[in-house]
Amino acid sequence: MEKSEIESRLKEAIARVLKINAAEINSDSNFVFDLGADSMQSVELVAAFEEEFSIEMDEDQALGVQSVGDAVEFIGTLVNQ
Amino acid sequence: MTKNIDTVFNPQSVAVLGATRTKGTVPHDILQNILDGGFQGVVYPVSPRSPSINGVKAYKYILEIEDPVDLAILVFPSSVCHLALEQCGEKGVKACIIISAGFREVGPAGVEREKNIKEIAAKYGISLIGPNCLGAINTDPSVSLNASFARKMPQAGSIAFLSQSGALCTAVLDYARGKNIGFSKFVSFGNKSDISEIDLIYYLGKDEATKVILIYLEEITDGQKLLEAAQTVIKETGKPILAIKSGRTSAGASAAASHTGSLAGSDEVCDAIFRQAGIKRCHTIEEMFNIATALAYQPRPLTNRVAIVTNAGGPGVMATDACIDHGLELASFSEETTEIFRRKLPKTANIYNPVDVIGDARSDRYNAALAGVLSDPNVAGAMVILTPQSMTDIDEIAREIVRTSAANPGKPVYTSFMGETDVASGINILQSNHIPHYILPESMAAAMAASYNFEQALKIKRLPVEPAKDVDKKKAQKLLKAAADAGHKHLPEVEATQVLAAYGLPVLPSFVATTAAEAAKFANQVGFPVAMKIYSPDVVHKFDVGGVILDVADADSAGKAFEQIVASVKKAQPKAEITGVNIQKMAPHGREVILGLKRDPIFGPVVMFGLGGTFVEVFKDVSFRAAPLDSYAVGAMIREIKSFPILAGARGRTACDLAAIEDCIKRLAQLAVDCPEIIELDMNPVIVQPEGEGAVVADARIML
To answer: For the domain A3-79, what is the CATH code?
Structure first.
């Protein structure tokens, strides 16, 4: 899967969970500091990404991902395995 | 860099970074508490997603706030605190409180995060409280800042409370509220990554609203600086410092190679250094506040002579016992006072100290008794005890005590209304009017004694340290280096004696014999009787391996003693390298004392003095001080031991040469400061001669 497609679908999923406009989301946006995700929403985001891309993510590793760009990279390696 | 502690307590504007709308969370409650506390400045919520929180306009980033921000409170998760702090730096924020946990206290990843935020703070010159803390409170009505997640703003008062534990703070606030205790400043400093208890002590020393400083500490990172800060503030401002240092029982378990090492456990040293600093060490929160309220609200007794007024004989006796136990005395009343009592109190009353106004006493009798004792020039302070009988007009008695105390402002008045429900409203009257109250008369006596002791501690002098000039530092360091280079963990007695001699300590002349014939020859030279001791780098406890024979009377015996010592040591410790036998003139008889030093990991070089000899660890009659030492501290540590009267010539005995002991302690402290490679040192015994005749070091060991 192309990175651009991953990024686009990822932003939609983030916008859905955090109830924000997808256009506000940049690749360097920090989930907590810029997008305001709290701890519950961080877990919800991991679940949404798993559903969106039909993957299973290691929870500790997934919660360690800080920015949208890092999430694109992380998910990219899983979907293209 | 000067730390902006004043900005923490007196900001014009505060930003809460990471604020949320979710009630019951720390980020929400911090903002709400600032609003509810009636903060007199401007507050800015900073929240990535909420345009407003609790009716206050919120900003996505602190950089979007147009006006300057003095203080930032960070409640973001620890993983992004560095991003928030970086923006605080760009905004020109002067101080930050990082509430968030997840730093040094959680392990290596947290250590790295804490290092990172310290670097960012240093880059921008931001002063930090925390991380991992409850926050800070300033009750001054012109500020009224509750920048914490403590439930309610405490009432204003003159006690400052500093705590390393955040959770303890909330419990203390609740406890204090129940007792009408007010605070000037309240701060939890958590991991103290930047601002520590030492900085706060100096700051509160200058804070006009603070009269008493209370500290709860879990770890001391720099004992020498804490000692210096406390000594300076107490001396310059007269403000008492009370501290609880928890974790008293865990440390100090490592095996010690010397008597000093064994006696100077970390908690004993902490106790001694606190005493040296003038800090009153408390063991419970209750004890701390018992004493703090006394010091904050009442004058200190100028002498240890106090009076007790009671309507119950038993509690009066209990209070008397407690007074004596704590070093107070019951004052003898003047003729005028007893005459007043004869006229105003019933015949059945006890008009001497403790004054018993009898069980049916009402407020008029209490008033007469309290006014009488307070006007007596022999009385430095009064303690009033009440038990609730059916005719006792408790509230009126409380009001009389308040009035009489106000009319005698120079002398402290403490109270103990014993009971629970019947006395509750009377206690409330007392506490609301800053009359300290104690459930138990014993606690009241302990607080009075602590207040008196603090008054005495203010008289402790700090003199310049005057190092002896006739020392050969280079020679001592050379001997120590040679031993360390050879891989020795302790200096054999001969070298140890040479190190001590280089510092002018009074050692006995000695020679090392390698054969029995040499032993006889050297013994003749030093003069009989002689002491003979094994000389081996591997033997520390010479007595235990048969390595010492004392009082050897002639040359023939010296030769035999040599053979006996070598044989005993070879049997007891076959692998020990034996260099020879040390022949030393027998020390003259006299009082045996011990001098020692231990390098404490927190407080640095600590000097010990006490009654010496073989049973030093049984009696444990020793005192400690952190080096360097001035002559006042040296004198105090000699007088502090229980057996001092023996040295000073109790019961008609000849007094010891105390000046010689003082000189030895001073030189030992100088050696301790000059030679950090010495980990532990014992001089035991040091034989002290009668006054004017000096002292000699009979045995010594130095551990590296």
So the answer is: 1.10.1200.10
